[in-house]
Amino acid sequence: MGIVFGRVSVEQPAHEVLQKFGGFEIRKYPKQVAASTDMSWDRSDDSGGAFQRLARYIGVFGTPENQARATGSASDTQEPVAMTAPVVMNPPTEQAAESVAMTAPVVMNPPKEQGAEAVAMTAPVVMEGASTTSPDGQSKGKGEMTFLLPAKYTLETAPVPTDPRVRIHEVPERTLAVKTFSGSFAKDVQESMAQQLKEELDAAKIKITGAWGGQGYNPPFTLPFLRTNEVFFPVEFSV
């Protein structure tokens, strides 16, 4: 029942709060390994498909769609991976190719008949990427959804995805301006909250260095007013 009432019981990424402002805070995150997949930002049903691909990779729905590592290489066993929070969602970006190159995703697709390793879920789920916009001001095109893997994993030890649409990569150390809110985590709400955060950062004269993203900590059946949602921008900030 805790997940219905907003309690986040899965692993969350460690971070340091550098400074709190009226409507947001500045956080510093260490580097972390992540599993990501593409999603269509302008199709309301596609985020569910992206989530399911990542959930199958870690074994949420049964046998994980991955290969466990054995001394740095893929083995013939499966490995469940614990869920973490948040899940990160990135809207589409005109600089998408550069973003992928900078994070150096490693894509490996071994045979599906081999074993897998279940991976614990973490939170949040992350969606991000700088946006391309339509005449109505809404983000369009291809975005990205990310599961941050438990802190114990490295690029060398993370289970290898068997779905070619799932890629494993390292998220570098980053400084983020984060705005937290409850209620709906719909894409239009994320866009509105990101615009509010941008205006607050501009007013505080904090330099934005990249695209905004959204982070969700709760499953969709959590009571809306008890959900923990976030939007963020990477920023340049010194204490």
TrEMBL record:
Lineage: Eukaryota, Rhodophyta, Bangiophyceae, Porphyridiales, Porphyridiaceae
UniProt protein name: Heme-binding-like protein
Alphabetized InterPro entries for the sequence: Reg_factor_effector_dom_sf (IPR011256), SOUL_heme-bd (IPR006917)
Family: Belongs to the HEBP family.
Gene3D superfamilies referenced in this protein's UniProt entry, alphabetically: Regulatory factor, effector binding domain (3.20.80.10)
One Pfam match: SOUL
PANTHER family: HEME-BINDING PROTEIN-RELATED, SOUL HEME-BINDING FAMILY PROTEIN
Signal peptide limits: none
Coiled-coil ranges from the UniProt annotation: none
Domain of life: Eukaryota
